[in-house]
Each structure stands twice: as structure tokens, then as C-alpha cells.
Amino acid sequence: MKNKEEFATTSIHGGYASKDHHGSLSTPVYQTSTFTFETAEQGEARFQGEEAGFIYSRLGNPTVQALESRMAQLEEGESGLAFGSGMAAVSAVLLYMTKMNDHIVSSKGVYGCTYGLMEFMKEKYNIVTEFVDLTDERSLEASIRANTSCIYIESPINPTMQLIDLEMVGHVAKRHGLPLIVDNTFSSPYFQQPLKHGATVVLHSATKYISGHGDVIGGIAVGDRELMGEIGRSTHKDLGGILSPHDASLLLRGLKTLPIRMERHADNARHIFNKLRNHSEVTSVFFPDDPTREDYEVYKRQMTGPSGVISFQLARTKEEVQSFMNELKLIKIAVSLGDAETLIQHPATMTHAVIPKVEREKMGITDQLVRLSIGLEHWEDVWDDLEQALKKVSEPIRK
What we know:
Layout: H1 4-13, H2 40-47, H3 62-74, E1 79-83, H4 86-97, E2 103-107, H5 112-125, E3 128-132, H6 137-143, E4 148-154, H7 166-175, E5 180-183, H8 188-191, E6 201-205, E7 219-223, H9 225-239, H10 245-256, H11 258-276, E8 282-286, H12 296-302, E9 309-314, H13 318-326, E10 332-333, E11 343-345, H14 357-362, E12 369-373, H15 379-394
Parallel strand pairs: 2-3, 2-4, 4-5, 5-6, 10-11
Antiparallel strand pairs: 1-7, 6-7, 8-9, 9-12, 11-12
Helix pairs in contact: 1-3, 1-10, 3-10, 4-9, 11-15, 13-15
Protein name: homocysteine desulfhydrase
Cofactor: pyridoxal 5'-phosphate
GO molecular function: homocysteine desulfhydrase activity; methionine gamma-lyase activity; pyridoxal phosphate binding
């Protein structure tokens, strides 16, 4: 993994040379739909791939390319692709990796919209996703079939924060000749670089920590140059889920402060975790940097920090849990994460509501579970808000 000093420099300078853009300190926004050719022959050469250069912004754009290059460097991959959303990235990669009647092995917990996409692929193309306990190597081995096309995981898993041993899964994937796709949204490349641990493709909802400001929707895929080129020429280009130059510039801006923000998110989260686990209303807390967890050794081996997401459970009914959320003042009820503001959401009725209740509960997503994305505020202000809301929910419900 890059040391943190080198990472910080790359997050500011990677993928951009000001001398190539009239000395502009910031990456210019090439707000254009198309690019002119000097001659008809040049246009033909570019379409034939005989000459490098830009053609049309859905096929490539200098601002977007700078973001793709910087993200590839930060993930220590060869090449990157930027998308109009995290789900556009997931869709393009999974559809590229599969064909009709294929089989996908997935971690037991995934984001609700990823689950929805997998269900759509099953209904439409008979591409069946099998959700497996990927913390167990024997379960993983037993799930692989002749028609398995790829392994897909989140680590940490949203929202239970369970960790998957990437090296173990990577070894199994390599043994069977299968690509391993890892959604790294919850960690960012600052705290985890899955390609170093056996992943084939790394995905991000760039909306989250990469942006950090809650004002962009975007997605990223990083892998080797050949694979990213193939995806770029097919499902990225032809499905059209591309990122705009303006949004690319906002994500480039966000990356410049990523190391500073991630350290603050993690430090704040550690404080809140220690408070929550000692509160009488809280029955369990899920946070990677917890020495009592079974997967703590995995955390120490493949992550350099926990990021800022904490999930916890209250011994209350769904209605009481919602009342607790409604009592919060500083903390906002919203379904994103990685922003400057601390956010809270109820996965069972929000991000993971599309998953049938029986399946949700197998994933550990109960009506008692809430997910916190710790922001950049002073942690004591965040805790004061949580504490006052927890106190109110512990009082008898007034009719």
C-alpha cells in the first residue's frame, strides 16, 4: 500500500499535468459534447483506433480522464473508468462479466440496489446470484459451479460492517480462474486497496467518500488496462452511464482532501463507537476497529483504518427506533454516507427495503438496526445529539 504521504500527494496531483492545459492549476472542465477533427481522415483514424484522441464525451473526455487516471493510481491499478453513479459502475461491470444462464457468487450482504440488479438479471437472463457466507472458505468453494462467472463482494458489508478476507477469496477466485469484484465504497482507497489483496476489479460509489461533499452522484471502476479497455468499449460506452465533465471536476476537487477527511471521519467514529458500546440502550455495535470482533485480524491485515460508518442496534420496536431517529437535531436522516454532515438511516426500511424481510434478517438487517455515517463535526456535538435522543427513547412512550 502507498504510504500515507505518497497517497496524499497522488490525491492532489495524480493524473494531471498543468503544462498540458495552459498552466491551469485546477483541471479544466471540458464542458463539450463532441470534439472536432482537423480532417476527415483524422476522424476515421480515431474511430478505427489508429490515432489517439478524443471523439465524443460519452467515449472519453479530458476532465473525466484525469479523474479515471487519479483513481487508478490511488487504487494502485492500471486503468479506471468513471460512471454516472455507483450503480452504473456495478451494472456495467456485472453485465460485462456475465451472459445468459451464468451464476454469480456474492457475499451474503450487499447494497439494496445491487441486490435489485441481481434479481433483475435473474428474472430477465437467468443469471442466478448465490448469496454465500464468504467468511468461510469451504462455503465459498462449495458454491462455485461450472457456470460461475464471477465473485462479487462488499467489504465492509453494508450495513453490518462485516469484513471479508480479500486474500482468501482472491486465492479461491484465482484457483478457479474467476474475476473477483470488490465494492470498496465504505473504505475508500485511503483505508483499503483490494487490488493488492487479489481483487480483479474495484468499484466505488464516488458519491460517498470520494466526493465527500454530498453534491455529486458518480461511480468508479478500477482494474488492469486490458479489462478496463474492454469494459470501456462495451458496457460503459454502449449502456451510456457515463460521468459528466462537471461532476468529474467536483470529484477531483473532493480527492484533494480525501486523506484529511478520512482521518477525521475515522477519529470521530472511534469516539462515537466507544460511547455507543457503553450505552444501556444499545445492544450491539458494528465497527471494524473493534478488537473484540472475530474478524479483527482481517481488519488489521487488509485495512489501515475503519472509515466513518457505524451500525448499531437498539432493544426497541421499529416504531421506537424511528422515534429515536426523529428526536435527532444535528444528525440528519438521509441514506448516503461519507459527507461532511453526520447522517443516520434505517436500512430495513430504506437502503435495503427492496430485499425480502426473511433475506434481510439472514443478512443481519433487522428493524432494530440503524446506520450512522459519522461526519466532520466535532465528535462531542454528534454524541450529545445521540445521547439526548437515546435518553428520550428510553422514557415511557407518551400516548
